[in-house]
Write a structure and sequence with these properties.
Bound molecules: pyridoxal-5'-phosphate
Strand content: 5-15%
Radius of gyration: 22 Å
Distance between the termini: 25 Å
Strand order of the largest sheet: 1-7-6-5-4-2-3
CATH class of one domain: Alpha Beta
Length: 412
């Protein structure tokens, strides 16, 4: 087993040398010739029963080689036997619920809030035929009944960055499978399967893709659970497009570098925000000495949240550089108001009770220069926005970029 950065670069590329190519090919075929129709039928049968691959993909809803390379690479990073990719993070959550609850005949879910608003809404809506009991992590065992098929949690949680002890939660869950949403931490900072999680879920739309241009989801798990997820994916058609598979696979190569750089920026922003008089609270794992930091979670990450004394939407309106948008994990810094957007569909009382107050803003640190992000945040918080960037002259740009280069080079 290679180290993280090496796995990120080389994962899922074992077949490329034999193909004589350097970049993974994007296989856009929807169907594959099966001259021997009986053999084609056997391949179809194997895939429909959950096999990872067969003699022919037969049809791209059953299997796609470009997507399969991404799955192999992600499984290596998450230290699991397999991974199954989907058309979005929500399609991935849906597939796990369908496999663990609906197919298994156990229509009850136990979940720990806060969760991403979409996941919370999906579990509460009844759409999938399950009912959900929300409990704090230390009450998981009491909430489990004979028809509980799944425990769902996020750590760090969206949007409060609350941490849950995965080992403790999986112990309390006993035989019930546990889904851990690892979107915020990424496999760079946390591997929930090593702490007992059955399903490790990512909205690949975020850090895995990393550039805000691909929607996808993935579940890393043991082979015994991957088969049912593939079966669900085939019949529901919740597949990831091969171009998405290519972009997510490519994103993995730079994932450790992006997360490490954005994390450095988030740590600095969290420290400065905590000292700003207009900020009433900062949520960032690096600010509290949580015992899970350094053990379960290898670094505080690149997400933070903060509350403002004044209306947070007014602060957002004054930003000039930071992108006011949902989503996270992109190259640019993103900020959003969870009560208005990502967590809007969670009933207000439940949202507030789970620690997502109306004065909270969520920030995803990007890869810009930290001083430019801070100038923008400081200006917006102090109601004194800096002048619009005027377009520095070439000489200024060369001077500042070369001094930045020396700083980076010196930091290694
Ligand atoms: N899980 C988390 C933690 C998220 O933040 C999101 C989306 O924001 C999702 C799941 C859903 O992912 P997608 O938007 O790719 O469907």
């Amino acid at each position: 087993m290679t180290r993280l950065r090496t796995t990120a670069v080389h994962g899922g590329r074992d077949d490329l040398a034999d193909l004589g190519v350097h970049a993974p090919p994007i296989d856009l075929s929807t169907t594959y010739p099966v001259p021997d129709q009986a053999e084609g039928g056997e391949a179809l049968q194997a895939l429909a029963e959950g096999a990872a691959r067969a003699a022919s993909p037969v049809y791209s809803r059953l299997h796609n080689p470009t997507v399969a390379r991404f799955e192999t690479a992600l499984a290596a990073l998450e230290r699991t036997e397999a991974a199954v990719a989907f058309g979005s993070g929500m399609a991935a959550v849906t597939a796990v619920v369908q496999a663990a609850c609906v197919l298994a005949g156990k229509p009850h879910v136990v979940a720990v809030r806060p969760l991403y608003g979409g996941t919370d809404h999906l579990l509460s809506s009844g759409l999938l035929g399950v009912r959900t009991t929300y409990v704090p992590a230390d009450r998981i065992a009491e909430a489990i009944t004979p028809d509980t098929g799944l425990v769902v949690l996020e750590t760090p949680a969206n949007p409060t960055l609350d941490l849950v002890d995965i080992t403790d939660a999986t112990t309390r869950a006993g035989d019930v499978p546990v889904l851990v949403d690892n979107t915020f931490a990424t496999p760079v900072l946390q591997n929930p399967a090593l702490h007992g999680a059955t399903y490790v879920l990512h909205s690949g739309t975020k850090y895995l893709g990393g550039h805000g241009d691909v929607l996808g989801g993935v579940v890393a798990c043991a082979d015994e659970h991957a088969g049912a997820l593939r079966q669900v994916r085939i019949v529901t058609g919740a597949v990831l497009h091969p171009l998405g598979g290519y972009l997510l696979h490519r994103g993995l190569a730079t994932l450790p570098l992006r997360v490490e750089a954005a994390q450095r920026t988030a740590a600095e922003l969290a420290r400065r925000l905590a000292e700003h008089p207009a900020v009433t609270r900062v949520h960032y794992p690096g600010l509290t000495r949580d015992p899970l930091l350094g053990t379960q979670l290898r670094g505080p990450g690149a997400m933070l949240a903060f509350a403002t004394a004044e209306d947070p939407t007014a602060v957002v309106r004054r930003l000039r550089l930071v992108t006011p948008a949902v989503s996270l994990g992109s190259v640019d810094t993103l900020v959003e108001h969870p009560a208005a957007l990502t967590h809007r569909l969670v009933p207000a009382a439940d949202r507030r009770a789970s620690g997502v107050p109306d004065d909270l803003l969520r920030l995803s640190a990007g890869l810009e220069d930290v001083e430019d992000i801070w100038d923008d945040l400081y200006g917006a918080l102090s109601n004194n926005p800096p002048p619009q960037p005027s377009g520095a002259c070439d000489a200024d740009y060369i001077k500042s970029s070369s001094s930045q280069f020396h700083t980076l080079a010196g930091s290694h």
